[in-house]
Amino acid sequence: MKTTRLLLVSALSLGLFAASCSSDDNEGETIVPIQGKYNLRQTGTIVNGQEVLIDAPANQSGCPMDYLDLRVSNAAVIGDYDGSECALTETTGTYVRSHNDLTITIGNLSTTSDIMNLTNKELKIKDKTTGVITVYSR
Predict the structure, then answer these.
(1) Is residue 49 part of a domain?
(2) What pLDDT, on a 0 to 100 scale, did the predictor assign at position 8?
């Protein structure tokens, strides 16, 4: 009788442990915080099922990299270096993250992207309307 109870308790404990470790708890959502400053690295799209990425043409040679700064206050700041003197223009808006969607609003223009990858070193997003992939690094 004692052995039967022990086996029953062990089986129940194992079942509860397995259920608590379900891989669909986050529905594929990454748990890395999105806030931070990201340097623009690459852009591209998917061609014949394959990602095709190139160095970001928006980055002007000889200047610091353009960037996206997602702040804790939900402010989104886009930094663009331009011209021979690498003049910095910053455009400020807001962002909202909902699961693996990132929506950035600047003025009356909003873009929503799928977060393809988010790690401590990289943010890769794909615009839901245009399909353009943008890769940033921290």
Answers:
(1) yes
(2) 36
